[in-house]
Amino acid sequence: MLKLAPINGARAARPAGPRARRPAATARVTAAAPAAEPPARGAAAIALLQSSSLPMLVQEELERMILAGDLPAGSKLNEAAIADLLGVSRGPVREAFRALEESGLVRLEKNRGVFVRQIDVEEADQIYELRSVLDEFAGRRVAQTVTPEIVRELRARVDRMEKAAVKNDIDGYHRTNLEFHDRLVELAGNGKLLLTYRRLVNELNLFRRAALAQVGTLLVSTREHREIVNRIAAGEAAAAGRALQEHVFASRDRMHRTRVDAAKTAARISKATATTARKMR
Length: 281
Fold this sequence. Notes:
Layout: E1 3-4, E2 46-47, H1 54-67, E3 76-77, H2 79-86, H3 90-102, E4 106-109, E5 113-116, H4 121-145, H5 148-166, H6 170-187, H7 191-212, H8 217-233, H9 237-280
Antiparallel strand pairs: 1-2, 3-5, 4-5
Helix pairs in contact: 1-3, 2-3, 4-6, 4-7, 4-8, 4-9, 5-6, 5-8, 6-7, 7-9, 8-9
């Protein structure tokens, strides 16, 4: 099998061994500017062991870096530099790019290259609307077929979310939140739904991560998840679907508040900077 070493000291998508030593310097596969070229070497490497798909592991590592924000939206990804960084040939990287395009994380532009997807707020709203429909359907389906074992599993997942919320562990909460919803859709038993849902979640990731950073958001979100599980446990299909739909719309509202707050902060900083510049004249 293949073993991925964590990049930037972060946990790899599917670690196969002990945690690697944190590198002395942060590795970047791309510079801050969208069209910048990444450095030739980084802190991580992929070691080929046995019986695993190299392109798949390259894909998983790039996906982890994109979803963690290590590769920012709009960044250009250089095939040769990424191959050098991960210690592989360019073929697996090329295959990984194609898979990431299908999952909605990158876009391939003819004669220009590969770029991390950048979602504007209008598209994000459309995705939230579609997600609300898919989540509502999944909630109803799971409530109709729920078992005591499933209820215990879902409640244990919400417990992990609550622990992360109490510690204000945004990364941990974000991860367990994604896993909770992915598992719910998986339990709905519709493979096409699951594929569509996962693509939408990938596209929304950066918006949702920023919204979770708002003060008090984690505990509010946890309460929403407990209500969802309570409705599912009671076998209340319609109520479970509504709870999930309302949760999606609440997440969308949090995203919009995050954008408004960011704009206000930027305006205050700009005003303060202008005032300071006038005083220094």
